[in-house]
Amino acid sequence: MAAKTGFAKYIIVITTVSAAIMELLDTTIVNVALNQMAGSLGSTIEDVAWVITSYAIANVIIIPMTGFLGEYFGRKTYYLTSMVLFGIASYFCGASEGLWELVFWRFIQGIGGGALLSTSQAILFDAFEPKDRGIASGLFGMGIVLGPTLGPALGGYILETYNWSQIFYVNIPICVIATVLTLIYIDRKEGEGERKKEIQIDYIGIMLLIMGIGALQFVLEKGESEDWFESRMIVTVSLMAVIGIIGFIWHELTTEHPVVNLSIFKHRIFAFSTMFNLVSGLGLFTSAFVYPVLVQRVNGFTPFEAGVSLVAPTLAAVVLFPIIGKRMASGASPIPFMVAGILFFIFFGFYSGTATPDMGKWDFFPMQICRTIGISLLQLPLINQAVAGLKPKEYPAGIALSNMIRQLGGAFGIALANNFATNRAAQHRSDLMANMSTDNPLFNERVANATRSMIASTGDSFNAAAMAYKQLEAAVSRQAYYLAYLDTFRLISIFFICLLPFVFLLRTKKVTPEEAAAMAKAAAESH
């Protein structure tokens, strides 16, 4: 596709960036709706988290295959099909009446969404001349930031005004407009979709990938509630995960036409970078998941307040992303940026671990600005470093795998946060309940005060004591979850602390501006 000029170029920018924002918006818009979904669907927050993780799993599965699927079907056809699939799945998500029906359609939505994010960047880059692709990278980087930023705020507004189903319906008009603009303004690449007969589909690899990742995620999500390996179901699904993952790795390394090129793991720099991508994804998604739940469950924020409190600090990334992208394009070393990003994330986790139940929206601003700076400093340099040791022809596979690992880290992080917070809440509750004894004069005094308060407010002296105990029990549960979420923030810091010493293993020779431009182009075409 030749570079565009004038009006057509701006239409392509609007179309592709809007599609990417929409896909990323749906990764966070659900976060503020978990409480309402749980109540409406008769489920726990822990079970409703599947609505987030099913979307992430679908992204993880489809992202490494987008290059292959785009080549097989033709990029424009694949892009349009994914757009329509995303819109249809969005409708059925909003119309779902049961949890597992919603989880299924979120998975289908994630299959379509993975292509929207990936292919949008390639189409956008093709619309610009090589010398202007730094501008394209900056525009797309702002879209990457705005999507997750606007998600909680938009979701909160919709929840307060309508109901949770509308957070999915809002995608439909955007899908319709983007589909029409794509049909009119986005051209097919020369020879696009004409090699279908020459391409062999790795059906076995695809099935093993789905089985391995899907089973592993199920174990992480349900292991805690099913008492881990005391459950025959968990044992069975764990075996499926082991067989699927090992089988996938073996098959992809031995087949002539792999759906995912795993041979690039022989490069030391790339192999080490996957560890950083995994922890990076874990930190990003976990922090975005825990914060809205904490401030709604403990601090009493409405969904809209929870979302709005994220907007202002995250907008800082809109400024930082283009600056860092320009520095990367000029051949600057990514190591200093990565070290700074990791340090900001470590500080963010421990700083967030000092939050109190009476903090307001603006009190969280310094914590969230640290997270935003950490994201900005870490993400683009990490993508560049991941492919620094690869040959140009290996760039597409390397970047696709890096994206997959980051999404996988996010899916694992949400499951880990759920299990960890549940365990820590149970422990904190046990510790707090130890003080609720009739031998404790302070406890007796509090019960007496609560009982008098109940009598004064209800006039029911007979049941006042029982209501006072229930009130105190609710306060203990709230305090237990509050302490558990603070522990989860600290856990994020611990992961990044463990990662920091390994950053210097990623050191490579200085990248020339020409090599940096080649990496940027490959990053677009690999999506």
Sheet/helix structural class: mainly alpha
Rounded mean pLDDT is 79
Measure the end-to-end span: 16 Å
- What kind of sheet is the major sheet? none
What's the Cα radius of gyration? Answer: 24 Å
Helix share bin: over 70%
Order of helices and strands: HHHHHHHHHHHHHHHHHHHHH
Tally of DSSP helical segments: 21
Beta-strand fraction estimate: under 5%
Instruction: Give the number of DSSP strands.
Output: 0
State the low-pLDDT regions, or none. 523-527
The shape, in one word, is globular
Task: Describe what you observe in this structure.
It is a single chain. Helix 1 crosses helix 8 and helix 4 packs antiparallel against helix 11. Helix content is 76%, strand content 0%. It is mostly helical and 527 residues long. It comes from Arcicella aquatica. InterPro entries: EmrB-like, MFS, MFS_dom, MFS_trans_sf. This is DHA2 family efflux MFS transporter permease subunit. It is found in: Cell membrane.
Task: Please write out the topology.
Layout: H1 6-28, H2 34-41, H3 45-48, H4 50-62, H5 66-73, H6 75-95, H7 99-126, H8 133-161, H9 166-169, H10 171-185, H11 203-222, H12 232-254, H13 268-297, H14 303-314, H15 316-329, H16 335-352, H17 365-386, H18 395-433, H19 441-458, H20 464-499, H21 513-526
Helix pairs in contact: 1-7, 1-8, 1-10, 4-7, 4-11, 4-18, 5-6, 6-7, 6-10, 7-21, 8-14, 8-15, 11-12, 13-17, 13-18, 13-20, 14-17, 15-17, 16-17, 16-20, 18-20, 18-21, 19-20
Summarize the entry for a quick read.
The chain is 76% helix and 0% strand.
Task: Write a concise keyword list for the protein shown above.
21 helices; 0% strand; disordered C terminus; transport; EmrB-like; cell membrane; transmembrane helix; transmembrane
